[in-house]
Every structure is written in structure tokens, then in C-alpha cells.
Design brief:
OB fold (Dihydrolipoamide Acetyltransferase, E2P), five-stranded antiparallel beta sheet, alpha+beta, 5 helices
Length: 199
């Protein structure tokens, strides 16, 4: 395996003294997990923030081997992590994607939608500008994974209707793609919901 691609960082887990295993989503190759040497050092730690857009080079000797990743930053979401609502939204969608998508199975529509959603979270003046997009992204993910969720029509909906749609979709996510997960991914969604309630 040898590829270069743009990718969105979705999750990292420490591995060894200084390295980490990163899960990144690419448009044409899907989710790729790989070992990043020096990932916990001063240079790479800010690059591996979930939500960041990066350029990766992945190399492995065989398809069964965990590839080594070289990562360069293209666009950082770091400046928005100081804002609690944006940080919770970025944390939730990246954890959702990292927990539900299979390795090396391309989902180009999900990649494009996630990229657009992260831009909206970072640049919309308030959560009212990106919450319908987040709900639409969750519905798209459910459809792409074969759970057939309908796209909620939130055009012109007030915040109460958007939050009701958000809550209803949360139950479907917990029941289907996240039902057998060992980690509490829905905890990230619960934190986002608490912060949305303060709008």
C-alpha cells in the first residue's frame, strides 16, 4: 500500500512512548488507520486534532499490516476549539465517523458532507446556522450504512423543531450503528446536546 491523499483527522489513540494510531477519512480510500511516529511531540500534536484537514502519505508492505502515516497540516480547526459549542460539535461528528465507518471502504458523499459540515461549524455565526446541516449529516451517515433514515425537512424550522429532530435522530444512532460499540461515543453527543440547550 502506498497512497497520498487529503484526509480529515477523526481520532487518535496513543501507541508506544511517542507515537499514536490515527484514524483519518479520505475521499477515495475511506477510513485509514495508521501509525504516526512522534505524534505526541510538540510538532505533530496540534496537527492531529480531530477535524483538521491534512495531507497523508500512507505506506505498508502488505494490506494486512498497519500502515505508517506521514501527516502534514492543510487546515486547522484548532482556533474553534476554544468555543465550547463548536468544540462539542467537532468532537461529536469526528467520533461518530471514526466509530462507525469500516476501514478502506470509500464513502465520498460522507467525506464531502463532513468537510462541508466542519466548515459550517467553524464559520457560521451561531449553531442555528449549522445544526440543520449536522442533522442532515447524521441522516446521510445512517443511509450510507444501510439504515435508511429519512432526511428531515428543517427548512424554516425554529430551534425547538431542530432540537426535536436532533433528539429523535440520536435514538436511531444509538440503536443502530453505535449499539455494539465498547466506547461511549454517545457521550460526545450528550455533551453537544447540553450545550445546544443553552442557546
Amino acid at each position: 500500500m502506498h497512497l497520498r491523499a487529503s484526509a480529515i483527522v477523526c481520532a487518535t489513540r496513543p501507541n508506544g512512548e511517542t507515537g499514536a494510531v490515527a484514524r483519518v477519512l479520505t475521499r477515495d480510500h475511506g477510513m485509514i488507520a495508521g501509525y504516526v511516529a512522534g505524534a505526541r511531540g510538540r510538532v505533530l500534536r496540534p496537527v492531529l486534532i480531530p477535524g483538521n484537514l491534512v495531507e497523508i502519505e500512507a505506506r505498508s508492505k502488505s494490506d494486512s499490516q498497519l500502515p505508517f502515516l506521514k501527516i502534514e497540516l492543510l487546515s486547522s480547526r484548532g482556533p474553534w476549539l476554544g468555543e465550547p459549542l463548536a468544540a462539542a460539535a467537532i468532537g461529536w461528528v469526528t467520533a461518530l465517523v471514526a466509530s462507525t465507518l469500516a476501514e478502506r471502504q470509500p464513502f465520498p458523499m460522507l467525506y464531502d458532507a463532513l468537510s462541508g459540515l466542519l466548515d459550517a461549524v467553524c464559520h457560521a455565526p451561531s449553531a442555528r446556522g449549522w445544526l440543520p446541516g449536522l442533522i442532515a449529516f447524521e441522516a446521510l451517515l445512517l443511509r450510507e450504512l444501510g439504515y435508511g433514515a429519512e432526511q428531515p425537512d428543517l427548512a424554516g424550522a425554529d430551534l425547538a423543531a431542530q432540537l426535536a429532530a436532533f433528539d429523535a435522530q440520536g435514538a436511531r444512532l444509538a440503536r443502530y450503528p453505535l449499539a455494539d460499540r465498547r466506547t461511549d461515543v454517545m457521550g460526545a453527543r450528550a455533551m453537544l446536546r447540553e450545550r445546544l440547550a443553552k442557546l
